[in-house]
Amino acid sequence: MSITRHMRIVASIALAASIGSASCGGGGASTTGPSGTVDHVVMSMTTATIQVGQTVSLTAQGVTADGTPVAAGTTWSSASTAIATVNATGTVTGVAPGTVDITATIKGKTGHAAVTVTAQASGAYTDVTVGRELWTTCATATNSQSFCWGQNSSGAVGDGTTADKSTPTPVSGSISFTQVVAGTARSCGRTAAGDVYCWGNLHFGFGAADQAPSPRLVSSGLNFVEISNGETDMCGRNAAGTAYCWGTNTAGASGDGTTTTHPTPVAVSGGLTFAQIVAGRDFSCGRTAAGIAYCWGINNLGQVGDGTNTNRSVPARVSGNLTFTTIAAGMEAACGVVSDGSVYCWGANLIGGANNLSPSRVNTAQSFGQVTVGVFHACALTTAGAAWCWGENDHNELGIGSIGGSTSSPTAVSGGLAFAKISAGHWYTCGVTTSGALYCWGASIFGNLGLGSTSSAGVPTLVK
Fold it and tell me: Which of 55, 22, 445 is nearest to 215 (CA)?
């Protein structure tokens, strides 16, 4: 067959190679032309390189021995779906770094394309959240792609499987999320329109009879601008500051004056408007625009911070007359930053000892602008982005280069990195730097550090 005829065949199948987000569609697999015996398959491209989470659209055309296009369907396959998947229309999605053979089969003949998948470039991430009781991590990227990894037995990674993942894995489907939050055995995402989708274990409090290994709509029409994932409860607020919560509501974490399970969002009682909403384990908190913090739900360890250990099913003001610039809820404790940069915490004592029924100032001379609370440790960022952590360090979760012991005073995280976001979880911590690079440290029991293994890291380590 002449080179000229080959070029004409390639042109006739509308060469397509559009690289974009995982929500992009692929090209059609068949073209018009006479039916006949396929001699060979012409591919729109034989090599391609994409990043994890990106796509490339391939097309293929079966032709006769004399180069005439044949109208016939195409079957696509990937030699390794762990590296890249391909759908029925030829759209290839990068899953993990590596090179994979993508095959197009037409009437028994095959064409091939070698697709190389590279790690997402440094500077690609905008946010990260860490599961507190289990080991799932989720992050959002500048290309509007969402990734999760780590423990996936309940489907909390959202890739349609229940196999654990040790590197960032794209959340399946074509939905674009502006916020993704990891939780306990489930993860959730918020769209720009304010709808909420969740994946993983939706048994508890969400009314689902099964697990959802890929995103499932759980709230629509409330126009959420922020969501927060607790253990078996979650909360959100709209642009007007109205807060809604839903879930098991065992101890009043929904804040509607009941302890009745709510599979869909219910408005928090009290008529308060919030500038921030956070959810912990069986308790929730909100911060008003004036900086007043309120909490509700379980209070056996002082999680509500009102000076008692009585459960509250409606918002109760956190004692101390403090004005907070930001708050955070962990598994059994909450913390907040006040206007002078001091951090106050209430609830469970992260290193043992007496619990705090009211806010207690963290002992440090540092001034902070952001705080996060995990299970047995907490971390905060200075206004310059320096990370400091305190609490238990039995699993390297403090990121200070040594393991063991505990500290009640914030200690500088090793590496001298400047972080824009930080999230503390169960024995590990992750943060996004001001340049958008993602680092994690601590225990990696299920690959939750995103380093490609289950090996722990004693200092911040770049996610693959």
Answer: 22
**Cα–Cα distance between 180 and 215 in angstroms, integer?**
11
17 pLDDT band, cuts 50/70/90, is very low
Q: Give the neighbor-by-neighbor strand order of the sheet with 377-382.
A: 368-373, 377-382, 387-392, 406-412
> How do residues 41-88 score in pLDDT, each as one tens digit?
999 999 998 877 778 899 999 999 888 999 899 999 999 998 999 999
Q: Which amino acid is at 463?
A: V
Strand partners, 73: none
Angle 9-15-20 from CA coordinates, rounded to 5°: 165
Torsion of CA 39, 45, 49, 51, to 10 degrees: -90
Q: Compute the distance between CA of residue 293 and CA of residue 274 in angstroms, rounded to an integer.
A: 9
Name the DSSP letter for residue 128: E
182 phi and psi angles, rounded to 5 deg: -80, 150
Which amino acid appears at position 341 of this protein?
Answer: G
Q: Residue 16: what pLDDT?
A: 31
What pTM did the predictor assign? 0.77
Contact 163, 193 (CB under 8 A): no
Closest residue by Cα to residue 344 from 353, 332, 325: 325
SS3 content of the chain, % helix, strand, coil (to 5): 0, 45, 50
What is the number of other CB atoms lying within 10 angstroms of the CB of residue 335?
27
Domains of the chain: 3-118 (2.60.40.1080), 125-462 (2.130.10.30)
Helices then strands, counting H and E runs in the chain, come out as: 1, 38
Tell me if 39 sits within 8 A of 64, measured CB to CB.
yes
The pLDDT, as a whole number, for residue 366 is: 96
**Look-up: residue for tokens 């779906």?**
81
Q: Which two tokens stand for residue 276?
A: 């921030």
Per-residue 3-state assignment (H helix, E strand, C coil) for 413-453:
CCCCCCEEEEEECCCEEEEEECCCCEEEEECCCCCCCCCCC
Residue pointed to by tokens 């642009």? 239
From edge to edge, which strands make up the β-sheet containing 211-219? Answer: 179-182, 186-190, 196-201, 211-219
Residue-level pLDDT at 33? 45
User: How far is CA 92 from each of CA 24, 52, 170, 231, 319, rounded to the nearest angstrom?
Assistant: 10, 11, 13, 35, 55
For 150-180, the DSSP string reads E--TTSTT-SSS-S-EEEEEEPSSS---SEE
Q: How far apart are CA 227 and CA 194, in angstroms?
A: 9
